[in-house]
Structure formats: structure tokens, C-alpha cells
């Protein structure tokens, strides 16, 4: 049903994620992969990633995943401290996480990425250092590290409202972010996006496509799609998603992207990366109006040392990355065309 959304482009990355794909059997995953091969032209050098939960996997499953053609594994470890994992409501413990990572590396996966969370209530800078040291003691090639955010209607949001949970203060947050950058650099990782660190040659090609506005198709409940002209998002509820398809009803919503929407999305994604805003690209795609708008907006941030220009690219400095959301919001072009 979605085959033509990418207009017969060759598929260069396949990513099983967004939920808990490791609950699928090897046979179920094989059927999905076979169907993708039937419907799309897939690059021989395709990056195939699967997100795995530490408590779902064993050596047999990992070997099966490898035989199915996956060449990249993302492990949602989150923390090496049991008390953090309990607070985060994760099913696994630190011992299971260590075994899962060891088994994944022993299964022959060269390209392994670990997910960590910092800014967790009760986590000190020393605890965070310990988490990073433990992570970098393994031969991984990529790390994604996200600051815990407490949204109003989530479990954490409700706990915060009742006074059962409090966010760590801004100074501690900034300190943990700086520790992350310093430790990752010493371990030979490059911060190619605010929350993503990879060794040379091991940046996530799939996620980089999002940030560089390369077209992508999202399949399954809650998945998003983008083809430079429109953005679509599937129904979140699994039962409603299935019933809509069975009853030939629309199973997604969408919007046509105006020039200003595309401009703002480009700013929002590009400024998070090590490549920053490509001024040549802006001038070519968004013409003089977009180019002038960026040059004028960037001036004060360059003066404050929050942004720097390297050749034809505008990039956030380390100090700028710490307040990236504020800077990005000031670059947003107001109004619609």
C-alpha cells in the first residue's frame, strides 16, 4: 500500500525499531524482510539495524538475526545501575545488560550501538562517569545518550506532580552533558549529533538520513514518513491501525510541506549535527530569502561564541549545544507562506 511513496528509490537503510522488535520471532522477522525484498530495490550495501532489549535475547537469537542479514544492533541498556533501571521501569537488570552486550559482540556483530540515559533523578556525576566508563570498556562503535525528559502526562510527569520525583538541576544536567562529550572524545568517538557519538565510519546511516532530510518510509503503528514534499504519520493504536487497514480506511494522517515548513525542519535537524547548516544548500533550495534570514540570525550567536562558521557551514559550538533548543527556536522562520 505504501510502495510508491519513495518513488522507486533504492533502499539504503532498514531499521527495525521504535518499539520492541526483539519480541518478534526470527521467522516473523524473515517474513517482513522477504516482503520488503519483493516490493523494493534494496542496496547491496544496505545498513540493516535492529533494536534489541537485553532481556529478550540469547546467543541463538543473535545468530539468527545475523543470518537474516542484520549488520547493526542497537541495545537499549539505558544504565548499568539497577536502581536507575527500576526507576525507568525497565524489565532487565544490569547483569542481564552485560550478558546481552557480551553475547552480541561474541555473535560477530562489528557495528553495535548502546543507548544510555542521563539526567536521571538520583544519578550523580560520579554515577554517570561510572556508566560511561563501563560502556566504553566494551568494543562498541556507537553510543546514543539522551537526557531524561519528564513530560506532563507520562508516569514520570504524574510522579513529579505528586512530589514523588524531582528533576535534577540545570547545573548538574550541564555537567553530565560535558562529561559525556569529554569521555566520548577520549574513547575515540565523534559527536556527530547532539545525542549521538560514533567512531569514524560507524555513524548511523539511517538516523543521519533523518537529519539530512533524505526521504524515508515508516511502516507500522506510529511510524512517520517523509519525502520532502509531505510528511505522514500512522495511527498509534495497534488495534485501530490494523482495523483501519482491514476495512480499507485511512491508517495515517499527513500534511503537505510548505517551503517555510521545510526550511524550519531543515534548521531543526541540521543544527543538531556536526555538519550544521549548509549555506550552499540553503541558497540553492531556499534561495536568497532563506540565505539572508540565516546570515542575519546567526550574527549574534557567532558574537556570543555559541556558533561558528567553517567554510560554508554554520555549526553550534559546545557551549551552543547546551542551549541548542533555544538557538534553534530563534532560527525558526515565523508564519506561513
Structure write-up:
The protein is an alpha/beta fold and 337 residues long. The protein has three domains: 3-210, 2-Layer Sandwich (Transcription Regulator spoIIAA); 218-256, no CATH class; 259-326, Arc Repressor Mutant, subunit A, CATH 1.10.10. Helices cover 42% and strands 20% of the residues. It is built from 13 helices and 13 strands. It has helices spanning 26-39, 59-67, 82-87, 94-106, 125-136, 155-161, 170-186, 205-211, 238-246, 259-270, 279-303, 318-321, 324-331; strands at residues 11-16, 42-52, 72-78, 111-118, 142-147, 190-193, 196-198, 224-226, 230-234, 252-256, 277-278, 307-310, 313-316. The strands form three sheets. A seven-stranded mixed beta sheet has the order 1-2-3-4-5-7-6, covered by helices on one side. Strands 8-9-10 form a three-stranded antiparallel beta sheet, with no helix packed on it. Strands 11-13-12 form a three-stranded antiparallel beta sheet. A hairpin with a 2-residue loop joins strand 12 (307-310) and strand 13. The protein is globular and about 55 Å long. The chain starts with 10 loop residues before the first strand and ends in a 6-residue tail after the last helix.
Amino acid at each position: 500500500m505504501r510502495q510508491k511513496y519513495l518513488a522507486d528509490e533504492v533502499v539504503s537503510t532498514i531499521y527495525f525499531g521504535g518499539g520492541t522488535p526483539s519480541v518478534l520471532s526470527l521467522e516473523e522477522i524473515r517474513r517482513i524482510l522477504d516482503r520488503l525484498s519483493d516490493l523494493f530495490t534494496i542496496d547491496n550495501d544496505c545498513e540493516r539495524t535492529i533494536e534489541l532489549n537485553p532481556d529478550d535475547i540469547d546467543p541463538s537469537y543473535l545468530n539468527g538475526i545475523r543470518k537474516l542479514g542484520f549488520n547493526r544492533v542497537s541495545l537499549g541498556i539505558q544504565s548499568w545501575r539497577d536502581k536507575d533501571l527500576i526507576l525507568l521501569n525497565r524489565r532487565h537488570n544490569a547483569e542481564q545488560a552485560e550478558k546481552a552486550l557480551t553475547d552480541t559482540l561474541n555473535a560477530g556483530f562489528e557495528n553495535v550501538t548502546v543507548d544510555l540515559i542521563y539526567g536521571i533523578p538520583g544519578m550523580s556525576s560520579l554515577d554517570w562517569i561510572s556508566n560511561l566508563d563501563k560502556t566504553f570498556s566494551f568494543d562498541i562503535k556507537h553510543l546514543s545518550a539522551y537526557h531524561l525528559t519528564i513530560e506532563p502526562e507520562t508516569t514520570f510527569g504524574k510522579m513529579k506532580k505528586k512530589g514523588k520525583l524531582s528533576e535534577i538541576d540545570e547545573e548538574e544536567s550541564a555537567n553530565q552533558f560535558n562529561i559525556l562529550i569529554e569521555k566520548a572524545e577520549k574513547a575515540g568517538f565523534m559527536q556527530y549529533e547532539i545525542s549521538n557519538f560514533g567512531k569514524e565510519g560507524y555513524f548511523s546511516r539511517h538516523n543521519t538520513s533523518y537529519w539530512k532530510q533524505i526521504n524515508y518510509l515508516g511502516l507500522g503503528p506510529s511510524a512517520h514518513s517523509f519525502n520532502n514534499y509531505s510528511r505522514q504519520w500512522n495511527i498509534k493504536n495497534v488495534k485501530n491501525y490494523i482495523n483501519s487497514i482491514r476495512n480499507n480506511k485511512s491508517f495515517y494522517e499527513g500534511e503537505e510541506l510548505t517551503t517555510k515548513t521545510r526550511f524550519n525542519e531543515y534548521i531543526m535537524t541540521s543544527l543538531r549535527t556536526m555538519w550544521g547548516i549548509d549555506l550552499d544548500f540553503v541558497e540553492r533550495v531556499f534561495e536568497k530569502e532563506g540565505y539572508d534570514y540565516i546570515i542575519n540570525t546567526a550574527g549574534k550567536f557567532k558574537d556570543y561564541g555559541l556558533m561558528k562558521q567553517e567554510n560554508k557551514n554554520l555549526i553550534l559550538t559546545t557551549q551552543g549545544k547546551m542551549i541548542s533548543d533555544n538557538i534553534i527556536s530563534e532560527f525558526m522562520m515565523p508564519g506561513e507562506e
